[in-house]
Write a structure and sequence with these properties.
Blueprint: E1 35-39, E2 42-48, E3 55-59, H1 68-72, E4 75-77, E5 82-88, E6 100-104, E7 125-130, E8 147-149, E9 156-158, E10 163-169, E11 175-176, H2 179-183, E12 189-194, E13 199-204, E14 206-211, E15 218-219, E16 224-228, E17 232-233, E18 239-247, E19 251-254, E20 258-259, E21 263-264, E22 273-275
Bound molecules: zinc ion (ZN).
Amino acid sequence: MRTLKPLIVILLICACTSAKKLPQEQYYAFKYYFVQEQRNDSVLFYLKNPIKCPINIQLAKDNLNSDLHSYFGQINLQAMQDTIIRINYPKFNLSSKSKYIVRYGDANQKIKKNVIAFPFPQGKTYKVMQGYNGKFSHNTLYSKYAIDFNLQVGDTIASADKGYVVGVIEDYKEYDTSKAWRDNDKSNYITLYHPHSGLFTQYVHLNYKGALVELGDFIETGQPIGISGMTGFTTKPHLHFNVKYPTSEHGLISTEITFENDLSGNDLKKGDFVKNL
Ligand SMILES: [Zn+2]
């Protein structure tokens, strides 16, 4: 004999927190304009690197031209370099426009680490809010050696090393702490490239229109480059500072660094105060 099990109805009460909708706009660190053209049995790609660091270009998979991306492979262009790639591909289907995957850096470039300055002006003291391998958000390949300093909204961000401005995003206005914002971050940030080391540095959560520099500018160590803020995935105002190097598989990934006065980034723990002497 069959017994009827009581039906348990679980009422899910929507815990609607303050989660905001992600901004509709998408801003990019830099813009590129590549052109493709079909000529006889070939496809031609006119590629130009618009910024002052190497970039790596791949083609995204395309259903109508299913193996074109494998013929294209990975193209490295040096700073401001342009090139034309010709691929023999008689079956090219024009109705599909190629999408590109463009990443910072040339993974073959040898990295020569040097000591760097703190990313805020001389004489200033800030507290470390999260260090290497921080549980809150410094736990991926892209963020695990980042350091959060407690800069307040309006404080000055300074360059940690000399180099070129290769990315500026400054048009976001909002922040949120929900998962969607973590996975699809809408932060304002500046990316610098340091040719002498091959490293990149990133300064994240800038104020709306908080960049003091433009793409292509050459920056000296300690130069003011931006105004700190609270945009993207964050719970408090702070500067998320990250040093990165390029890989062919994952693009830019986070790496350890030593600051001036031989202070290793690894020694900076949550709650420590750091003065830029
Ligand atoms: Zn951070």
